[in-house]
Amino acid sequence: MASAEIAAEHERILREIESTDTNCIGPTLRSVYDGQEHGLFMDKLEGRIRNHDREIEKMCNHHFQGFVDSITELLKVRGEAQKLKVSKTKERHEQRYMQCRLQQRNIATTIDKLTHCLPGVAFRAQYYPALCTLEQLEQSCLPKAGGYRFCAIMAENIPVLRTHIRDVSMSDLKDFLESIRKHSDKIGETAMKQVGLCKIWGTPIAKIIMTVPGAHDLVDFSPVYRCLHIYTVLGSRDTFESYYRKQRRKQARLVLQPHSNMHETLEGYRRYFNQIVGFFVVEDHILHTTQGLVNRAYVEELWEVALSKTIAALRTHSSYCTDPDLILDLKNLIVLFADTLQGYGFPVNQLFDMLLEMRDQYGEILLKKWNLSFRQIIDQDNYSPIPVSTEEEYRRISGQFPFQDPELEKMSFPKKLPFSEFVPKVYSQLKEFIYACLKYSEDLHLSSTEIDDMIRKSTNLLLTRTLSHCLQYAIKKKNVGLAELVQIIINTTHLEMSCHYLEEFISNITNVPPDGVNATKLYGTSTFKDARHSAEEEIYTNLNLKIDQFLQLADYDWMAAQGGGQASDYLSDLIAFLCSTFSVFTHLPGKVAQTACMSACKHLSTSLLQLLLEADVRQVSMGALQQFNVDVKECERFARAGPVPGFQGDTLLLAFIDLRQLLDLFTQWDWSTYLADYGRPTCKYLRVNPHTALALLEKMKDTSRKNNMFAQFRKNERDKQKLIDTVVKQLRNLIDHSSVNGVMWQHL
Question: Which of 44, 187, 266, 497 has the greatest number of CB atoms lying within 10 Å of its CB?
Fold first, then answer.
């Protein structure tokens, strides 16, 4: 047959193959094998197949390019919408701005949905026709074609082609898994930044998460879709799902393992959170763009494990932190982390519970910081009233501390405020502490009442523990003088009066009235009262110690023949010191000054009596007793002069009544009256204890015998000695009688 005829015959057979139903193609194929030039026909068939493949590819490319162009146009529109949004924001046209944002969100949503489809379309253009052709050949065409050799060759190659397609897709999937491992940090960072902007703009987080650039902008997810579809077509979807989930679990374990030095900087925590967020953003994307590759139960199980490990890591690493600013920044970062994941539908209540636990740690760190601040204020204070030279200075200080004194305001400048710099500085620190507590409570989804309660409880800890200890430190530290203690009392008095202003300050920032039924009251009043009482006791103690120091200088000649006409030098110095000291008590509350003065006088009286009766003083002459009497009279003159105002009549003199009656009894030698009236309420020497009288008389008896005390009365010397012996005997009988009566009364 001529070549032209053979070509025409082959063309006819090819047209018949293209147009004939597959059920009737058998005779046509038989004619090919029965005819001549079989190889030539096969070449022609291959050429025709290539032509059809090109046509198919052209058609796919034609439609695919149009789809890509439409996406590109939409992206351009989004850019224009973004510009429009910025323009309208600057012009502050709120209504138009919201319309543009709505338009932008719709456009972005459309782009997002179409972009999700793009990998599938690209995949179908590349792989799906091949898989469908292989399936059609294997299940339909080849079985019907019969046992021809080319059918067998094609049947043998179909599994090879499938394996190749599967292996290529699996290789792409592994590259994808490596890619998302590297990009998780960036994906998480982007998501958390967008949620942070959302909080600034006041936009619902869910809307932002739907509209902002997501994981698909940083990572190409087409390998997942392609591999999933290929394994599905090949009947191995379960194998693929198992492999994907296993690999992602491995990556999750790596992501959830924090660096050992994560706690050293905020960036360490930030990288940790970015990786976790990035991981779950990817899983959320896979969940919503594939049919069952991962399901909600799988993702929730992963999140439950991740949440537990994250909280454990945060508890461990945050425990090393001693910087309140870092704790506060970490809290804000955890809130952002929680809000981001909550926007993707993950439960985060446990994170907020952990933040409430961290609040206690934050509070303890704040207390330590403020302890140092208070100590520094105490050490730097000069314990002197604040001098004010101008109205501006006065207003500045009254702006720092709520102080009102109408009398002081009437005075001309320069003048002095009663308190030292300690007061406005401490008050300012109290307010700063309250602000620091408020900062931590923000964004924790707490009610105003809960925030108010938290702040008040923390402030109470600051007052009753930290500030109270610091005040005790100021009161008890070495070398603190009476003037400093007086200033501390004045300072704490003014701070106590300012407590209701602190109550109002807290109420103003929490919007919770201070007089609510369940409102926690501040313990500032009791704190400052306790400190003041402690300072008062320290004043009394210091005064007594100072008096003791003067008394150590006493140098009585207990065997003196006669007393001097003036008070002893040590006592004159002591009285001068007391006068100077009590003059500083002008700004103290009246009762404090009176109590201090009475306490000092009582201690002085008791100490003088002890000095007279101490065991080392074995003998006391009448001359020494007269000098001692002169000193006591000097003390009485001091008491009568009223060193501090407020005493009624001779109340302060009562501090020396025991000494006065004892000395009167001995200097006037009025034993008959004492012995006759003893025990009566109207007794002249009611305050003289017979034990005391006997002890002193014994000292004088010994003196009389050894030193001939009554030498000037030589004629009556023997009678005087007998009188002393008689009084001693009567005093002993009196003491014994009193002891017996006491025992009888106890018995009754």
Answer: 187
User: Residue 39: phi, psi to the nearest 5?
Assistant: -65, -40
Q: pTM to 2 decimals? A: 0.69
Confidence of residue 123 (pLDDT cuts 50, 70, 90): very low
Q: Number of helices and strands (H, E) in the chain?
A: 30, 2
C-alpha span between 286 and 288 (Å, rounded): 5
Nearest residue to 593 (alpha-carbon basis) of 603, 583, 602, 604: 583
The per-residue DSSP string of 35-90 comes to: SS-HHHHHHHHHHHHHHHHHHHHHHHHHHHHHHHHHHHHHHHHHHHHHHHHHHHHH
Residue with tokens 């953003």: 281
Helix (H) or strand (E) holding 416: strand 415-417
Alpha helices for 584-621 (secondary structure H): 590-613
Q: What is the DSSP string of 509-558?
A: HHT--TT-TTPPPP-HHHHHHHHHHHHHHHHHHHHHHHHHHHHTT----T
Q: Identify any residues that bridge with 387 across adjacent strands, giving them in sequence order.
A: 416
* CB proximity list for 659: less than 8 A, separation 6 or greater: 605, 608, 609, 632
Query: Where is average pLDDT lowest: 84-98, 115-129, 344-358, 445-459?
Result: 115-129
Q: What is the per-residue pLDDT across 426-472, written as a single tens digit (0 to 9) for each?
A: 999 999 999 999 999 988 888 988 999 999 999 999 999 999 999 99
Using only C-alpha atoms, the chain has a radius of gyration, in whole angstroms, of 51
**746: CB partners within 8 A, 6+ apart:** none
C-alpha closest to that of 419 among 596, 536, 588: 588
Three-state secondary-structure class, residue 387: strand
pLDDT tens digit sequence for 529-548: 899 889 988 888 889 999 99
Please return the burial class of 647, using the count of CB atoms within 10 Å of its CB with bins 0-12, 13-18 and 19+. Answer: middle
CA dihedral of 231, 232, 234, 236, whole degrees rounded to 10? 70
Q: Which residue has the higher pLDDT, 301 or 166?
A: 301
CA trace torsion 424, 429, 430, 436 (10° rounding): 150
Nearest to 3 by CA among 41, 42, 30, 34: 41
Residues 738/690, Cβ–Cβ less than 8 Å? yes
Classify residue 108 by burial, with Cβ atoms within 10 Å: 0-12, 13-18, 19+: buried
**Cβ–Cβ < 8 Å for 688, 734:** no
pLDDT digits (tens, 9 = 90+) for 495-510: 998 888 998 999 999 8
Check if the beta carbon of residue 295 is closer than 8 Å to that of residue 337: no
Q: How confident is the model at residue 226 (pLDDT cuts 50, 70, 90)?
A: confident
